[in-house]
Amino acid sequence: MSKVLLDQGLCRAYGLCVTVHPEVFALPPGSPVAVVVRDIVDDDDLADVREAVRACPAQAISLVEE
Q: Is 30 left (phi over 0), alpha (psi -120 to 50) or beta?
Protein backbone atom coordinates (compact mmCIF):
# COMPACT_ATOMS: atom_id res chain seq x y z
CA MET A 1 0.00 0.00 0.00
CA SER A 2 1.13 3.53 -0.74
CA LYS A 3 0.20 7.03 0.42
CA VAL A 4 -0.86 9.87 -1.88
CA LEU A 5 0.15 13.39 -0.88
CA LEU A 6 -1.19 16.61 -2.39
CA ASP A 7 0.53 19.92 -1.64
CA GLN A 8 -2.39 22.34 -1.58
CA GLY A 9 0.06 25.24 -1.61
CA LEU A 10 1.22 24.16 -5.07
CA CYS A 11 -2.10 22.91 -6.47
CA ARG A 12 -3.77 25.18 -9.03
CA ALA A 13 -6.91 23.04 -9.59
CA TYR A 14 -6.07 22.06 -13.15
CA GLY A 15 -8.05 18.86 -12.54
CA LEU A 16 -5.86 16.48 -14.52
CA CYS A 17 -5.50 14.25 -11.46
CA VAL A 18 -9.28 13.94 -11.24
CA THR A 19 -9.44 13.00 -14.90
CA VAL A 20 -6.77 10.33 -14.43
CA HIS A 21 -8.11 8.82 -11.18
CA PRO A 22 -11.45 10.20 -9.92
CA GLU A 23 -11.63 7.57 -7.16
CA VAL A 24 -8.55 9.12 -5.50
CA PHE A 25 -8.78 12.82 -6.41
CA ALA A 26 -11.67 15.28 -6.49
CA LEU A 27 -12.15 18.91 -7.43
CA PRO A 28 -15.03 20.25 -5.35
CA PRO A 29 -17.14 22.89 -7.09
CA GLY A 30 -15.69 26.34 -6.48
CA SER A 31 -12.59 24.97 -4.76
CA PRO A 32 -9.26 26.59 -5.60
CA VAL A 33 -7.49 23.24 -5.08
CA ALA A 34 -8.02 19.54 -5.68
CA VAL A 35 -8.39 17.18 -2.74
CA VAL A 36 -7.35 13.62 -2.07
CA VAL A 37 -10.43 11.58 -1.22
CA ARG A 38 -8.52 8.34 -0.61
CA ASP A 39 -4.90 8.83 0.47
CA ILE A 40 -4.00 5.15 0.96
CA VAL A 41 -3.96 3.25 -2.33
CA ASP A 42 -3.22 -0.36 -3.12
CA ASP A 43 -1.20 -1.86 -5.93
CA ASP A 44 -4.17 -1.82 -8.32
CA ASP A 45 -4.21 2.00 -8.18
CA LEU A 46 -0.48 2.64 -8.49
CA ALA A 47 -0.25 2.97 -12.27
CA ASP A 48 -3.03 5.57 -12.39
CA VAL A 49 -1.72 7.50 -9.39
CA ARG A 50 1.78 7.56 -10.91
CA GLU A 51 0.20 8.92 -14.10
CA ALA A 52 -1.54 11.64 -12.06
CA VAL A 53 1.81 12.55 -10.46
CA ARG A 54 3.39 12.87 -13.93
CA ALA A 55 0.41 14.75 -15.40
CA CYS A 56 0.17 17.43 -12.70
CA PRO A 57 1.44 20.71 -14.23
CA ALA A 58 1.96 22.19 -10.75
CA GLN A 59 3.88 19.13 -9.51
CA ALA A 60 1.66 19.16 -6.43
CA ILE A 61 1.17 15.39 -6.12
CA SER A 62 3.58 12.89 -4.66
CA LEU A 63 3.38 9.20 -3.88
CA VAL A 64 5.08 7.51 -0.95
CA GLU A 65 5.40 3.87 -1.95
CA GLU A 66 5.84 1.23 0.72
A: left
Question: Are the CB atoms for 16 and 52 separated by under 8 Å?
Answer: yes
CA distance 43 to 59: 22
Contact between residue 25 and residue 34 where contact means Cβ atoms under 8 Å apart: yes
- The span from the CA of 39 to the CA of 30, in Å, is 22
Is 6 in contact with 60 (CB distance < 8 Å)? yes
pTM of the model: 0.93
pLDDT at 66: 81
